[in-house]
Structure formats: C-alpha cells, structure tokens
C-alpha cells in the first residue's frame, strides 16, 4: 500500500512526470497524494487530498523530485498527514510505505526532546530521528542507516537529501525498485512507474540505495558495505496497461478473461506441473493466500485433495501462525498472490522457510517479492491487473491448477465468451440487488469458494453487505436473517444439485427471492443464470456471472469501479 516514485535527472525535467508516475501507482492507495521537488536550493512540496484527479499545471522543472500516493494508516486523511513529511528544519523530506510498529515509543522520545511534530503519521518521526543524527554531525546516509535499524515492522522509505542532491531508499518488506536510464535514474514501488528506465535493479530487504549525480550505489544497511547488484533489462516487461475501448479497468479485465485462458492453455503450465510433482512427494501441502487469492486456493485445494488423495489445506496468510509449529522439510507451501507483494503472504513465507518447508507460488506480477523468494514459481501471465478488485487473476489462478491436473480449458473459454456476450441477462437482477443492503450467496463443496469470492466482489464494488456461505450452514444460524425482503443467490453444481436445491427451498419458504446459477432452470428459482459447461467449468462460469453482476450494481450505484473506497491493490501492511 502507498505508492512511491522519485527521480534524479542529469538535466531539469518536468516535475509533472512524478504526478504521471503516481497515476500509475494510484492502485496502491488513493487517500491523498503529494510531491516534493528541489527548486532554487529549496524543497517545495504540494499535497492534495483524495484521488489524483487533474494534472497540476503549475509544476516547474527540477533535477530532483519525489512523490507519494497514500493509503492511510497512522492519522486521518488530511493534508498534514499526506507525504512527503519533513523534519523540524524542513531540509529532510521523506515518503514511506509501511507501518512503524514502535511508533508510540519513538513519538514519546521525540516529544520529550521537544521536536515539533505536526502530523499524526509514523512517517514524520523518521524525519526527526534523522534530523537529530545529522545535527550531531552524522552524514544523512549514516543517519538513515541507523534510524532504519531502529524501526520495527515492514517499511520502505525514500529520503530526499537536498544538500547532496540525492535520494536514499531503504526497505524491509515493502517493495522498491530502481530504474536506470541515460537521462535520469528512478526509484518506485512498482516497475510500472519507472519512467523511461532501460534497466532495473531490485532492492532487497536490508539494502540502502543511493541515487546521486554519480549514479546508483547499493549498500548493506547493517555494515555499510557496497553490494554488487544485477541490472535487469526492461525490454520484456509490460510496463503499462491501457484501458483502450473500455470504461474501466474492471470492465477490461473481466472481458479479457477468455484471452487470459487462451494464453494459459498455450503456455501449458510448466512450473505448476513441477509444483504438483513436488506435492505428490510431500507429507503436508498447504496453500496460502489472502482475499480472492485465498478463495482461489480453496478451489485448488478441493481439486488437489481429489487428485492427490492426501491432506491438502488452504490457510489465510494472516492466520498462518497457528500452523507454523507443524511445518517441516516435508511440507510444501503453495502461495497464491496476484501482486506478489502482499505482506501477510511474505511473512508466512519467511516463517515457513525457517522451518525448512519448500516454497512454491502462483504469482501474476513479474519480479515481485514472492516470485523472487520461491523455489518454484508459476507465473499467471494475466497481464497487469489494475482494478483493485481482482477478476482475471482469480479465473487464471483456477485455470493454472486445472492445466496441471490435465483439464481441458477450450470449452470453458467458449462458455465465458458466451456469458460475456449475454451479459445483459444480469441487468434486471443487478437492479433488484442494487436496492438492497444485504445479499446472500450460497454454495456447497466446489461452489463454496465461488460463493465467497462472489460475495467479496459484490461487497468491494457495490458496498452492499454480501455474505457468501455454505448452504449447509444456513440452518445453523443465518436463516434467522432471511425474510421476504431477502435475495439469495444459489450456486448449483452437478455434484451438489439436490443439497443446493434444498437450501434454495429453505430460503424460499421464508419468503426470499432465489436466483439460481445452475445447469438447469429449476422450479425453486425466481431468476436464473445458466451454466453451460461440464463439471470442471462450473466454478469459472458462475464466478464470471457474479463478476458481471458486481460490475453492473457498481455502475447502477455510480461508484468507482476501479478504486473502491478504503482499499488498495497491493496490501503491503500487516
Ligand atoms: C479482492 C482482492 C483482494 C486480494 C488480496 C490478496 O478483489 O483483490 O482480496 O485478492 O488482497 O492480494 P494478492 O493476490 O495480490 O496477494
């Protein structure tokens, strides 16, 4: 969360390019944004609340500039809490992605030492801590190293040093990547924002990068020793995803799902097949993910149990600690993550590695942290997913496991195309749901993760409380909520038809309107969306209907489809 982009240029360069870079990073947070640049030996900052709406016209040229788009953690959404943050002298500016866990202790110390703290952020404290060390005669670089070692938690910081005209970047957990070109050098949270960089260097945890007029240098934060770094050519990296003919990235990403699956079929899952071979040899197989990726893990788990005939479980990365003591060398971890930067997932990987487990992953973002720390990594090849709500990556995550298990995807591709062509079928349903505050989505067995994912899409995109749940669980409590105003979507797979129709009847008997997503129109359904494919394709078809439904409700409610409130695409804080 939070996006960082900065440059040091050999010649003056329009500072507005930082704004353009921030636009590409806005998916990481859009509560507020800010830019600091060097002008006439002074640091000048602008800050705005909310999304990056209109390009500033009054930004000058500068050789040094740094920007930040914020997802608020410490302190409300105010200009004062926006980054960059400054020290008391105004000479040190910095931007930050992460959470400083020993914030209270550091704030108490600084307040006692009479620093003028003007924001509620944890970020500002770092500027004051650096200031103190510089006042005592330390170089900024040494001060950044020492202060960074005091910070607890996962943090990425970029400090602007106006005296020596340079940027100092340091990180643990949250990503930072350097971009190199003949005209300017860059630092950013994501490759996407690296300007016209020709090569990149990936900053690892515990490394500090200096971008100065002498070029780029990386040192070890602990001992200050220089670290030789590999430079990667930018050519084969997709830097930007354009919206093209679509009204939103959500629409684009839902519509490109058939092409994503075609690509997955062509690539034939070389790495995922290796992961499945490893799974056969291991005693324990644990899939790990968050949000949508966790639900894709649940889908895969059901299939792996059937195929491997052994215990396979899916664990929420944020709940991984419960299982850590059971891990050993005969454990295979399969991480699912679109961004490859989700901090809960990275934290789980570190703990699993310490126990000797083998780490494998299914990742969409190239050069991401999870890809780098995995023993085997299957790339999703989805192309950049920009909408905060995941769609194509979920369908792709399901598909790569299917490819490895020998399932043919060709009919699935045709059926998704058919659904996309017939998406108007959901219009009356979307209208009906858009007037409600609650929605229930019921599934069993293989359809339970789809019910959960569908509910998540509806929540994120329409702000309607949607509850995805196991049909069998209804009578254990939730049925108390069902009345004649309720709408229940019932997901019926071939293997659970009778049980799901029973769930449909239970809610219908209490007056609920029942929408069936199923192979056949049944009497219990008031409304019906068809699944046309064979058993292996049922989940994908159902989820595409639910994605379209969420998109339409979002549209009817005139909400932002790409940037739902309070969320960010890449969750790099715990
Ligand atoms: C929901 C959504 C999130 C992510 C979750 C994990 O639409 O996008 O729930 O799935 O934050 O993100 P990744 O897959 O990047 O680890």
Automatic annotation (TrEMBL):
Gene Ontology molecular functions: carbohydrate derivative binding; glutamine-fructose-6-phosphate transaminase (isomerizing) activity
Reaction catalysis annotation: D-fructose 6-phosphate + L-glutamine = D-glucosamine 6-phosphate + L-glutamate
UniProt keyword Repeat present: yes
Mitochondrion is among the record's keywords: no
Occurrences of domain SIS (ranges): 275-414, 429-564
GO biological process: fructose 6-phosphate metabolic process; protein N-linked glycosylation; UDP-N-acetylglucosamine metabolic process
Superkingdom classification of source: Bacteria
Alphabetically ordered keywords of this record: Aminotransferase, Glutamine amidotransferase, Repeat, Transferase
Enzyme Commission numbers on file: 2.6.1.16
SUPFAM superfamilies listed in its UniProt record: N-terminal nucleophile aminohydrolases (Ntn hydrolases), SIS domain
CDD domains per UniProt: GFAT, SIS_GlmS_GlmD_1, SIS_GlmS_GlmD_2
Pfam families for the chain: GATase_6 (PF13522), SIS (PF01380)
Glutamine amidotransferase type-2 domain residues: 2-214
UniProt name for this protein: Glutamine--fructose-6-phosphate aminotransferase [isomerizing]
């Amino acid at each position: 969360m939070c996006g960082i982009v900065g440059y040091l240029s050999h010649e003056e360069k329009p500072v507005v390019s930082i704004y353009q870079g921030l636009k590409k990073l806005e998916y990481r947070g859009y509560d507020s944004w800010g830019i600091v640049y060097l002008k006439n030996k002074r640091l000048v900052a602008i800050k705005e609340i909310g999304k990056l709406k209109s390009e500033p016209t009054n930004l000058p040229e500068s050789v040094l500039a740094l920007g930040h788009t914020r997802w608020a953690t410490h302190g409300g959404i105010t200009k004062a809490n926006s980054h960059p943050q400054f020290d008391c002298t105004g000479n040190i500016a910095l931007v930050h992605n992460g959470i400083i866990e020993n914030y209270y202790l550091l704030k108490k110390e600084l307040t006692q030492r009479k620093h003028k703290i003007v924001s509620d952020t944890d970020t500002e404290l770092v500027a004051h801590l650096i200031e103190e060390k510089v006042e005592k005669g330390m170089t900024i670089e040494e001060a950044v190293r020492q202060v960074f070692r005091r910070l607890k938690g996962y943090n990425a910081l970029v400090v602007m040093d106006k005296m020596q005209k340079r940027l100092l970047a340091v990180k643990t957990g949250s990503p930072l990547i350097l971009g190199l070109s003949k005209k300017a050098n860059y630092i950013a949270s994501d490759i996407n924002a690296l300007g016209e960089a020709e090569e990149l260097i990936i900053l690892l945890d515990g490394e500090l990068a200096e971008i100065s007029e002498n070029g780029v240098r990386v040192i070890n934060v602990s001992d200050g020793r220089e670290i030789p770094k590999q430079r990667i050519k930018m050519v084969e990296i997709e830097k930007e995803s354009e919206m093209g003919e679509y009204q939103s990235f959500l629409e684009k990403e839902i519509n490109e799902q058939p092409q994503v699956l075609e690509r997955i079929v062509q690539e034939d899952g070389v790495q995922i097949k290796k992961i499945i071979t490893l799974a056969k040899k291991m005693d324990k197989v644990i899939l790990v993910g968050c949000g949508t990726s966790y639900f894709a893990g649940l889908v895969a788990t059901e299939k792996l149990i059937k195929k491997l005939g052994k215990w396979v479980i899916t664990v929420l990365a944020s709940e991984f600690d419960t299982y850590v003591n059971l891990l050993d060398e005969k454990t295979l971890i399969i991480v699912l993550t679109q961004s490859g930067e989700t901090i809960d997932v990275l934290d789980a990987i570190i703990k699993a590695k310490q126990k000797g487990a083998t780490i494998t992953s299914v990742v969409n973002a190239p050069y991401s942290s999870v890809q780098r720390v995995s023993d085997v990594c299957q790339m999703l090849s989805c192309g950049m997913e920009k909408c905060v709500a995941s769609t194509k990556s979920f369908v792709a995550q399901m598909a790569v496991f299917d490819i490895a298990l020998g399932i043919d995807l060709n009919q699935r591709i045709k059926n998704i195309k058919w659904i996309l062509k017939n998406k108007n079928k959901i219009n009356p349903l979307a209208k009906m749901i858009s007037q409600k505050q609650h929605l229930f989505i019921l599934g069993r067995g293989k359809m339970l993760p789809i019910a959960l994912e569908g509910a998540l899409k509806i929540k994120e995109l329409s702000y309607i409380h949607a509850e995805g749940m196991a049909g069998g669980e209804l009578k254990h409590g939730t049925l108390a909520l069902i009345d004649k105003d309720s709408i229940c979507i019932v997901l019926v797979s071939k293997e659970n038809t009778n049980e799901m129709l029973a769930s449909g009847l239970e809610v219908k008997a209490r007056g609920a309107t029942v929408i069936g997503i199923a192979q056949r129109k049944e009497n219990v359904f008031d409304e019906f969306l068809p699944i046309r494919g064979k058993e292996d394709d049922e989940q994908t078809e159902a989820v595409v209907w639910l994605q379209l439904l969420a998109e339409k409700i979002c549209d009817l409610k005139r909400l932002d489809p790409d940037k739902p409130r309070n969320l960010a695409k890449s969750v790099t804080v715990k």
